[in-house]
Amino acid sequence: RADYVAKMASLLQPDGRLAGLLFDIPFNLDGPPYGGNKEIYLPLFESSFEVLSMEPALDSIAPRAGRELFFELRVKS
């Protein structure tokens, strides 16, 4: 996960934004798919990004409703 954060930060220009969905449920921690929650994700992203939003996704597909976080981040300059 730390490698993902570093790679995304390196690919984006200063003040570039990253948005997407993250699982908001526990999974196997030893291999994919990786689950997690806001408390796990925030420290990872805050090292390289300003967290603009990280909230429960409002428009997930039915099987994932209530189990995803939508995030929007901005690279720290």
Detail the topology: elements first, then pairings.
Blueprint: H1 2-11, E1 17-23, H2 38-46, E2 49-56, E3 68-75
Antiparallel strand pairs: 1-3, 2-3
Keywords, please?
77 residues; alpha+beta; three-stranded antiparallel beta sheet; 30% strand; globular
Largest sheet: 3 strands, antiparallel
Radius of gyration: 13 Å
| Proportion of strand residues | 25-35%
Low-pLDDT runs: none
Summarize the structure.
By secondary structure, the protein is an alpha+beta fold. It contains 2 helices and 3 strands. It is 25% helix and 30% strand.
Description:
A three-stranded antiparallel β-sheet has the order 1-3-2, with helices on one face. The longest helix has 10 residues, at 2-11. The chain starts with a helix and ends with a strand. By secondary structure, it is of the alpha+beta class. The protein has helices spanning 2-11, 38-46, and strands at 17-23, 49-56, 68-75.
